[in-house]
Amino acid sequence: MAENSTFGPPNSDPNFSSTEANRALEKEAQLPLTGWQQEVDRGLELGLEAAASIRDRSIPTFSRGELPHYAGINTFLKAPYLEDVRKVDEYDIAVVGVPHDSGTTYRPGTRFGPQGIRRISALYTPYNFELGIDLREQITLCDVGDIFTIPANNEKSFDQISKGVAHIFSSGAFPIILGGDHSIGFPTVRGVCRHLGDKKVGIIHFDRHVDTQETDLDERMHTCPWFHATNMANAPAKNLVQLGIGGWQVPRQGVKVCRERATNILTVTDITEIGLDAAVDFALERALDGTDCVYISFDIDCIDAGFVPGTGWPEPGGLMPREALYMLGKIIQKAPVCGLEIVEVSPPYDISDMTSLMATRVICDTMAHLVLSGQLPRQKAPDYIHPEANMAVGSEWV
Ligand SMILES: [Mn+2]
């Protein structure tokens, strides 16, 4: 502080002592550095000690961890790549890519979504200032790579996706799914339902589009996931909540299905008029009515198109990033969440990685709120995973 300053330290100023920023400063002091030290030790062991001229002796010769951010192999957040997916149960969270865009009806490119999200995720540290959380210290995360999708055949891809998601979900690792277009919403939920037994899941769906029609262009496309997901007994339509719907790209045949099945829709105007907290309460009450857990399907195009140009059907007038992130965080704080998918990131249409960055932000905030709400790391398998669930699922899907 300058000698002639008229200001005292912020935390001694009664007008500012209770700011989020001051709380964040205090929270950081409570976080351990154990995981960081392990990363340094591992880097030195596997990456060799640095050249003699390097004064910081925590730096290895070969980059083997978070640093430097521009180096290394691009898994999500530089998490370990888990080649042997049979060991996914050893992690709290498993990130999996679903590079499938054959369900796209206009601008393709979401098959590169997982790569785009992973690439820009290298920009992030595992620490968040105001949340006071350091993922490296508090959970274990792996990147299991991508599901092998079949570009010429949506249905075969759906079977692959359901099998892969079921494998992760049944292991107890929390699945975070990087799309891919929104057609994957049906097979991902089907994979979760495979191991719910008679338990039920409510779907909270952030989107500008309803995605509820039976077919589009004669197939089950990215306009169709919730028609088919809510046909499953484990995922009732009355528990489908759709936040941010509106504009000029909502097919009328999908609207008809929403009306017939009485799904729960809030437009962007609804959300801003009733307020974010009331919108969160609306979503939770309906998604959790008679269900055991919530699955979050986050279409990046729910955000105003100005922030997310890299998507298949950009639509102006969407949610502000702060609004979407606020609602997402509050929902996770208050609901048992069984999985997250982030879809419709199309890097070929992106500018400066901004759409992929938004997706990364959604994922990292989700992980943080899962930890802050005590859902992760898990002490035991959640009740909604069937006790006989195991990773050896069959390949037949209805
Ligand atoms: Mn959409």
Automatic annotation (TrEMBL):
UniProt KW Metal-binding keyword: yes
InterPro entries xrefs: Ureohydrolase (IPR006035), Ureohydrolase_dom_sf (IPR023696), Ureohydrolase_Mn_BS (IPR020855)
A biological process (GO) annotation for this entry?
putrescine biosynthetic process from arginine, via agmatine
What GO MF terms are annotated? agmatinase activity; metal ion binding
Gene3D superfamilies referenced in this protein's UniProt entry, alphabetically? Ureohydrolase domain (3.40.800.10)
State one Pfam family annotation.
Arginase
Query: Keywords assigned by UniProt?
Result: Hydrolase, Metal-binding
The family note in this entry says: Belongs to the arginase family. Agmatinase subfamily.
Task: Output this protein's name.
Answer: Agmatinase, putative
Organism encoding this protein: Acaryochloris marina (strain MBIC 11017)
